Amino acid sequence: MVVFDADVAVVGLGAMGSAAAWRLAERGVDVLGIERFHPGHVQGSSHGQTRLFRVACLEHPNLVTLARRSRELWEELQARTSTPIIRITGGIMMGPAESDVIRGTLAAAAAHDLPVTHLNRDELVSRFPQHENLLEGTVGVWDPEAGVLHPEAGVIAAVAAAREAGAQIFTDTRVGDIQLVEGGVRIQTPARVFMVRQVVMAAGAWLGKFLPELPLDPWRTPMTWFETDASTTHSFTLEDFPVFIRAVTPDNWIWGHGSADGFGVKVGPDRDPNFVSVDPDSIDRGISPHDHELVSMLVSHAIPGLHPEPAKITTCMVTQTPDGQFLIGRPGGDPRLVVAGGCSGHAFKHATGIGELVAQIVTGDDTLIDTAFVDPNRFLREEKSLAS
Ligand SMILES: Cc1cc2nc3c(=O)[nH]c(=O)nc-3n(C[C@H](O)[C@H](O)[C@H](O)COP(=O)(O)OP(=O)(O)OC[C@H]3O[C@@H](n4cnc5c(N)ncnc54)[C@H](O)[C@@H]3O)c2cc1C
Questions:
Q1: How far apart are the CA of 229 and the centre of ligand 1, in A?
Q2: Which one of 156, 284, 302, 361 has the fewest beta carbons within 10 angstroms of its own beta carbon?
Q3: What domain count does the chain have?
Q4: pTM for the full model?
């Protein structure tokens, strides 16, 4: 007779996995979580002090409900810890009316009747003078529910909440091999084998190593912080220079936010030719001038009050899918397997909501949003398989 170590295992306790373990444990599911590093580490996709939080999600209107539920859950985690996790300041999306930034933001706002405010170019120039050289025809959409999240604190708090709710947590434990076997899943780690009925695969940039048939492309994506230029009179506090996304060319945008206690001004490009595919086990974490070539050029043109040479750079990873939407669901419909990944550079804000979605999928309950647009089966023609 098979002896199960738990009903469900979550592999990878980063943004999505820590939240999934928490939401499963909160529902009374017997769950264990396994993480190869330590919660809040800097090797994956969930480090670097801040992430943008937005509700008028330009990537897909269905994400609005997920973002709002995620905010509630981030606030719940924040209330349990003395560390700030989420700060709502409002955020401004800018670009020509026909740009993806504006069209996507307005589509999300219209689908959910969000309380966004429209700004014309003159209003943008007077309210956000740090942004110079706006593209021809630029307009603004103010999302009052936007802000910043603190990713390391969020992950650490979710793991702690999972543990408090009864999850068994194994850190510094690398899962080597996973096999779907009759009636369950066999998970191999260096010290022992775990047997569970279902596994949630939330291994971030490493997910494709277990599920190579999923179209997951881990990119090396440096993060850059800037200091104000000595000559500027503009303020770059988070309050005066809030969260923004701004179209800077017809096919690229920059994103960022101002500084507050404990973190600095951050600006990054959506696309950069230097975002290259990597093997997450051998990513080059060294920094070279190429890492800031494009962003420095964009900053000097678009936000000249900042010194274009970054004050700090660190490497991170985005796991891209072909359509830029996440992968959440059961590949091949297998009742033993749920995946949560394919972050495509915009999933941190949704991670707690994704954790809840995963818990609903695992337990077979109704999901809080229609998941067709993130269902991994949109890319699969054949049955899934697991490889180590
Ligand atoms: C530069 C940059 C900027 C971004 N900006 C934003 C933003 O502004 N807003 C936003 O919402 N999102 C943003 N994102 C995206 C967001 O950070 C990611 O969507 C999110 O962090 C991904 O979470 P994850 O759980 O998929 O991966 P991770 O948090 O990396 O978690 C995966 C975990 O799996 C573990 N793992 C892997 N293999 C194994 C194994 N074999 N055994 C055990 N454990 C394993 C890893 O150690 C890791 O802890 C940004 C990302 C980057 C890189």
A1: 32
A2: 284
A3: 2
A4: 0.97
